[in-house]
Prior knowledge:
heterodimer, A: alpha+beta, two-stranded antiparallel ribbon, 3 helices, B: alpha+beta, ten-stranded mixed β-sheet, five-stranded antiparallel β-sheet, 12 helices, 30% helix, globular
Amino acid sequence: xxxxxxxxxVASARSGDKGDTSNVAVWVYDPRHYEEVKASLTPERLKRxxxxxxxxxxxxxxxxxxxxxxxVLHQALEGGVNASLNLDSHGKAWSFLIxxxxxxxTALNDPPPDTA
Amino acid sequence: MTVRxxxxxxxxxxxxxxxxxxxxxxxxxxxxxxxxxERTLAHGHLARMKDPAKGxxxxxxRRLEAAxxxxxxxxxxxxxxxxxxxxxxxxxxxxxxxxRLGLAGTLIATIEGDDVTHLMTPDTLLPELxxxxxxxxxxxxxxxxxxxAEVILQALQHEPALAIAGRVADPALFLAPLAQRFGWAxxxxxxxxxxxVIGHLMECSTQVTGGAYADPGYKTVPDLADIxxxxxxxxxxxxxxxxxxxxxxxxxxxxxxxxxxxxxxxDPAAYLTPDVTADFTSVRLMQQGADRVAVSGATGHARPxxxxxxxxFDGGLLAEAEISYAGPGAVGRGELAGExxxxxxxxVRGYQGPLRIDLIGQNAVHATARRQQSETRDVRLRxxxxxxxxxxxxxxxAEVDNLYMGGPAGGxxxxxxxxxxxxxxxxxxxxxxxxxxxxxxxx
Lengths: 116, 443
């Protein structure tokens, strides 16, 4: 059975910056969700969700062995640390823009989040 | 043979105690202090211009006081980029610190040649801008090439207690000690790729031991207040175990290590450094007991032909000012304050440039991405602009301050600051243009 959940329920993410380019790497906790997340989280969708912020091209790199997707978001930092007037000029919080998006995944009993 | 590398700092202002702990208990071969971000160097150039004895990491002496005695006693080599924009001054400060600690005679190596400010001319092209430096009208503060492991390795062949560089690629600080101890050739691309992955994982200190990771309800990290810095147990084949000292906070899990693996990486099949084109796509991670993650499988291809240069420019001033509204109607009063401020700055004062006004608590960091409504009862208006004109920066602070009496009801807690800023641009230079060199001396 499929259900819609925020990406944050099935994956984590970290963002980094280089100039006006942000990268957000998404790591799916349960390998069984990887293909579903990949199908749902396309560059076109990210562009559609946040057109005012993600102004440039978006590339997606895949790391299937580690269940990761790396999004490279060009012109996505309001000018970057050089020019941005955003409080968070590095876009450290961009990962949570992606994690807030809903994805459609197979319901699993207790997907394993990373807890010590 | 296992080579044990510890991270002593992951950025300019990183904590000192975890490094002291690693120096004391880590049984390390090398302790690496990574102290540079893209713009740290430009700030270093500015500091050196004001005072020729400055321009290196202001925490260098404190870091050495905390770690050098244990490192010298145990034969742990220190490698750092804390020289920032003034490596000779950092060398002198380190020697003085060593003597003060009763360690006269300590062997110190300095690594220079990254400063290429003299090669910047009005005709130098800035590819990201599509203009020359002359056309851009920008004032160059300094320019530095990213040196690689080769020159660090030359320094390490003298077995110094301390090797101090300025701008070198962060992973090279870790790769050079591995190449020295394992005798890796500098064209053994798979090994250099593997060593670069280890360096990349280690260079941001706590980001691989559970820092910048916790998300209550989803990702739980124990004892973050006492988080430990990472330690890598490295093998000659390029594999390693990432771990941390027992009794420290944080955690090392495969998921934590994954998050750091692609931090600030674009194409994971082609991570460019001065030493190698590293390929992260074949990396394997395996949990080997508590707080131990085995990393293997990374590889690499021939190094890029040119070196990256970061040029720093005077970026003028960033002016920011804030005022709070709380209680019933806080959002409405905050919004009204924003409208008043915008009118004051534009219609009354004639400012036409970009002016950012956020309501922190309702819509600030993510404001450009999406509109957000909330019934919060505690908002903080924040206004920001950039300018070369100090009077304009001060005007913004004054206009926000005037909201106390001329704005909506119940505005409080005004703060304002004006921060000098630098900006950076990247370009590529041929290796031939850059002459790395070392100097070795005793404290």
